Amino acid sequence: MIFRSVELQFRALSENQNRAELEFRAPTENWFQPHPLSFNFARMTRRIGIPIALTIAGSDSGGGAGIQADLKTFAALGVHGTNAITCITAQNPKKVFAVQPCEPKIVHQQLEAVFAELRPAAVKTGMLYSEEIVRVVVSFLKAQKRTPLVVDPVMLATSGATLLRPSARKILQDELLPLATLVTPNLDETEVLVGERPQSVGEMCAAAKNIFQKFGCAALVKGGHLRGAREAMDVFFDGKRELLLTSPFVRGVRLHGTGCAYSAAITAQLALGHSLPNAVKLAKEFITREILTGARSIALRETKAGN
User: pLDDT tens digits, residue range 176-232?
Assistant: First the structure.
């Protein structure tokens, strides 16, 4: 029955989008044979104008972060998500158990396949892990027409597991960040980039300017773990304007994968054609809304369980 549901889904899309042109084959009697539906998705995506975004990151077996969080965010914002997987991780929201990096060759082949048929309007990177993988990504992106690039410099998991080897940090800073449109470090990652962990909003502002001067890309310094703060505050600086983005702290909600989703939301908004400052503001609103929705859902379940 899975193929029948897919057929109906895309038939409905065709009826709602006059420009969509799907290529169907007549279904056979056995719905479980892999041939009842055939369509050229790349052609459909281009003709109905669905923006495309690419995430280059690791896979999270728990589904809450990494590639999985990115693709869910892209879909929620109306963007078709493509991906190049850099690592397979065995993890859940509490712990990373193991990391298996992909061979650099297959990372490059994934990028080639995506750009050949589904050229993205915006790209983000997440967990890159090794120097070899960072070099492959840098080499490939340098050879392409300049595309908005959001770098989420994933270095450590909340549990303390290493997600970017020390040997890869220098190549990320020296070669990937100069290609970036925006880098989105948390406070610990900001310390690696500028040499000092911000302890106040003022120091976050200084760090964002320092990152711009040092690497030539805009910075969004995320202050969700700033000690003593009464709100979740982020600082954006692009060389011309500085933005202070705030949202209320929400208690009792697991925030595993929030950083991935935040950078993915910015990437999706760039793919949709928004300017960088607007993309950042819209992404902040999206993440805040999703966290509040999660908190309400938890509260509702707890209320029902108590009755």
Answer: 999 999 999 999 999 999 999 999 889 999 999 999 999 999 999 998 767 766 778
Amino acid at 296: R
In whole angstroms, what is the distance from residue 64 CA to residue 264 CA? 13
Q: Measure the CA–CA gap between 124 and 183, rounded to whole angstroms.
A: 10
Q: Burial code of 166-205, b = ≥16 C-beta within 10 A, e = fewer?
A: eebbebbbebbbebbbbbbbbbebbebbbeeebeebebbb
Q: So what's the pLDDT on residue 289?
A: 86
Rounded to a whole number of angstroms, the distance between the first and last alpha carbons of the chain is 38
Distance between CA atoms of residues 292 and 258, nearest Å: 12
Cα 237 to Cα 162, 245, 267, distances in angstroms: 28, 11, 17
Instruction: Give 246's strand partners.
Output: 233
121: helix, strand or coil: coil
pTM summary value: 0.80
> 159 with 65: CB under 8 angstroms?
no
Domains in the chain with CATH codes:
1-9+23-49 (no CATH), 51-306 (3.40.1190.20)
